[in-house]
Design a protein that fits this description.
- The protein is of the alpha/beta class and 553 residues long.
- The chain is 35% helix and 10% strand.
- It contains 16 helices and 13 strands.
- Helix 8 links the parallel strand 10 and strand 11.
- The radius of gyration is 23 Å and the shape is globular.
């Protein structure tokens, strides 16, 4: 197993080994591998929650799981995560993100269940030959398997989102995604943004009822396929969150963000609980924003989202709340350069801590336990993880990008804690992980006399050329290079490869859009294909031509 990479042999943002002089990493770090019971009675073998990451694994148009998904999730299941959540699985085939998502079918029949059942078995780490559960170990065992259900809403892109050209998506109100920031963009960015994000159609009550039914169908599919539960994606600017936020919901009816911002989410959750085909002890979680609630897109305090947490807790039907933040208009959750006010903080820890206190109000004898809190963001070092649990800032530790760069992190962390308990020196996960190079080129390859070396040279000249072109890309496209890089690494780790830091965000973005579907090599659908680099050069040439043509037109 690989060690935590360092750039230049030193922690990127400073050492975290002295966060807390009084922190006993053996005692508090050991809490990571203590079991935790959810309100339904389900028990996770440890507190590491593999949260959703964008996958881009399906053919365009989306579809069910396939051999590539099985390979990827088998890696995570065997490496010891306590709870494993899928990437965003779209409930509407005409409202995808970038067109290559897992998609809930429009009708649930027995013949469409097998690929979903197999994914559930893989995520549960069931032995493929005997069908038996994994052996129980201290801190490890059968993971809980969840599907994240999502509807892209107004963030569903033109064409690739599953609709004909210029067909508008549905939204809480007729407000274009990113509208609040367009006035600060250049002409090219505004033109591209308008073509990527048409103004959405305000949803009618029938549209809302249809969307609720789509989420319920997704939950029913999960239950019938053997998953332990689902999470409703109510963050990052997707449909559910747009009903909750003032800047994207100016309705004056019963779904107004002013008077009842959680109505849409509440109706989805209660409809899932009311479905007779879904077991009573089926896990139901929610992912919400910790910020970005202001009408004009500026930073908001925590009072409004905390009120949402309190209301969700009062429903008595939710099992966990994942705390995240930002959306694609203000993509702090995809920014690799996130900074921290002090070494003691992670991105959303303060809000998670307040949520714990709010939800504790509903912890009363004889009543259903309140939802657990999942903290996602910045949990990349052992001291941070230990401090969150030691200070009761969250019940579960959401791990996203670390699950990509270090898929074996649970067993590595556990081994590190055991070595410390024996008094052996150990420095694993004590420093910030390697940060991607800001120039987009990646780390220098061992030799420039290679395809990777040629790629770096071409990318370098492309960056120089772009600097002299008076055109600015939309904000999300500038931030998405980091997401693209992690997606490319997903494909590598799925099939036993290692993370490759010589691939920069520019090269990763090309790989993100050019390759075929990442089926397993033994899958008959797997395409051998040829080297992608000639296509890369051709695409660069077209991009340069288009950019220069736009400049001199």
């Amino acid at each position: 197993m690989s060690e935590l990479p360092q750039s230049s042999g030193k922690p990127t943002n400073g050492s975290t080994s002295r966060y807390f002089d009084d922190l006993d990493l053996v005692t508090n770090g050991g809490k990571i591998f203590s079991p935790v019971e959810l309100p339904t009675g389900h028990v996770a073998p440890n507190r590491l929650f593999k949260t959703a990451v964008y996958e881009h694994f399906n053919p365009y148009g989306g579809g069910p799981p396939h051999s590539g998904h099985y390979a990827l999730y088998r890696r995570w299941a065997k490496d010891g995560y306590g709870i494993i959540l899928t990437g965003n699985t779209m409930v509407a085939k005409d409202h995808l993100t970038l067109g290559r998502d897992l998609v809930i079918p429009e009708e649930i029949t027995d013949d469409i269940l097998p690929p979903w059942k197999r994914l559930a078995d893989v995520m549960h780490n069931v032995d493929e030959v005997t069908g038996e559960d994994p052996p129980s170990e201290d801190g490890f065992g059968r993971p809980l398997a969840l599907i994240q259900l999502s509807h892209a809403g107004r963030q569903s892109l033109n064409v690739v989102g599953g609709r004909p050209p210029n067909a508008p998506p549905l939204g809480a109100s007729a407000i274009r995604a990113g509208q609040s920031h367009m006035k600060t963009h250049g002409w090219f960015s505004r033109w591209l943004h308008r073509n990527m994000h048409p103004v959405p159609i305000e949803m009618t009550k029938q549209d809302i009822e249809n969307a609720i039914a789509q989420f319920v169908r997704g939950a029913e599919l999960a239950a019938r396929s053997g998953f332990d539960g689902v999470q409703i994606h109510g963050a990052h600017g997707y449909l559910v969150s747009t009903f909750m936020m003032l800047k994207s919901n100016i309705r004056t009816d019963e779904y107004s963000a002013e008077t009842d911002p959680l109505r849409f989410l509440r109706e989805i959750c209660f409809a899932i609980r009311a479905n007779k085909n879904i077991p009573e002890k089926f896990l139901l979680g929610v992912k919400i924003n910790s910020g970005d609630y202001a009408r004009d897109g500026t930073r908001a305090g925590s009072e409004r989202p905390l009120a949402h947490v309190r209301e969700i807790g009062s429903w008595g039907i939710i099992d966990f709340i994942e705390v995240s933040g930002g959306d694609y208009e203000d993509p702090e959750f995809v920014d690799s350069a996130a900074s921290f006010k002090s070494p003691r903080q992670v991105i959303f820890e303060d809000f998670a801590e307040k949520s714990m206190k709010v939800l504790a109000e509903f912890n009363k004898p004889g009543q259903r336990p309140p939802p657990l809190v999942v903290l996602t963001g910045g949990l990349t070092t052992l001291p941070r993880m230990a401090s969150v649990l030691a200070n009761d800032h969250a019940h579960l530790l959401g791990v996203g990008r670390l699950s990509i760069t270090h898929p074996e992190a649970p067993r590595q962390l556990n081994a590190s804690i055991e070595r410390r308990a024996r008094g052996e020196p150990d420095d694993a996960f004590m420093h910030e992980p390697h940060q991607l190079e800001e120039d987009g080129l990646g780390m220098p390859p061992p030799s420039y006399l290679s395809w990777r070396g040629l790629e770096r040279v071409v990318c370098y000249w492309l960056t120089l050329l772009w600097k002299i072109i008076p055109a600015e890309m939309p904000r999300i496209m500038c931030a998405s290079g980091n997401v693209n890089w992690h997606n490319v690494m997903l494909r590598r780790i799925a099939f036993g490869g290692d993370v490759d830091y010589t691939i920069g965000t520019i090269g990763a973005t090309v790989r993100f859009y050019l390759p075929g579907v990442p089926y397993a090599p033994e899958d008959p659908k797997s395409s051998k294909g040829s080297s992608w680099f000639p296509l890369f050069v051709a695409l660069v040439g077209v991009a340069i031509g288009v950019a220069l043509g736009g400049r001199f037109a």
